[in-house]
Amino acid sequence: MVAYSDLIFELSQKHGIDYRLIVAIAQQESNLCKKTPPDCNNCWGYGIHSKGTLCFDSYEMALESYAAYLKEEYFDKGYRTPEEIMKKYAPYSDSWAFGVRQFLGDIEKK
After folding, report:
1. Measured between alpha carbons, how far apart are the two ends of the chain, in Å?
2. What is the pLDDT of residues 65-99, one digit of tens each?
3. In 3-state terms, what secondary structure has residue 86?
4. From residue 67, how far is each of 25, 82, 94 by CA, in Å?
5. What is d(CA 27, CA 7) in angstroms, rounded to the nearest whole number?
6. Structure pTM?
């Protein structure tokens, strides 16, 4: 994700999202893109479910789509903290928000 840090920051500013959240969710969902569907460029578990898998031709396309998705489906609807986001994003998990929060803290320390 380091190679995309400028784009992540730019998109976070454009959509009013903490850049760390984009990275922390990727860490929680895929260990920073290490565990993803083959040839998918989707590090966020976004659009990956029993009905199919949302894939992108590039990480740039995925980041553009994901940042807009976070804004429209979460921030614009009042879901802003990891705990609030988890209610919709990972409703069957009891630890998703804890993991995201931990990764947010790890990023802040660097």
Report:
1. 15
2. 999 999 999 999 999 999 999 999 999 999 999 99
3. helix
4. 11, 15, 24
5. 17
6. 0.93
| Three-state secondary structure call for residue 109 | helix
Q: What is the pLDDT of residues 30-44, one digit of tens each?
A: 999 999 999 999 999
| CATH code 1.10.10.10 for 2-109 | no
Q: Which residues pair with 49 in a beta bridge?
A: 52
DSSP annotation of 90 reads: S
Find the length of the chain.
110
**36, 42 Cβ separation under 8 angstroms:** yes
CA distance 95 to 41: 24
Residue 20's φ and ψ, nearest 5 degrees, are -65, -30
Q: Which two tokens stand for residue 85?
A: 């986001």
What are the structure tokens assigned to 21, written together?
């959240």
Q: What angle do CA 18, 105, 7 make, to 5 degrees?
A: 35
- Numbers of helices and strands, H then E, in the chain: 5, 2
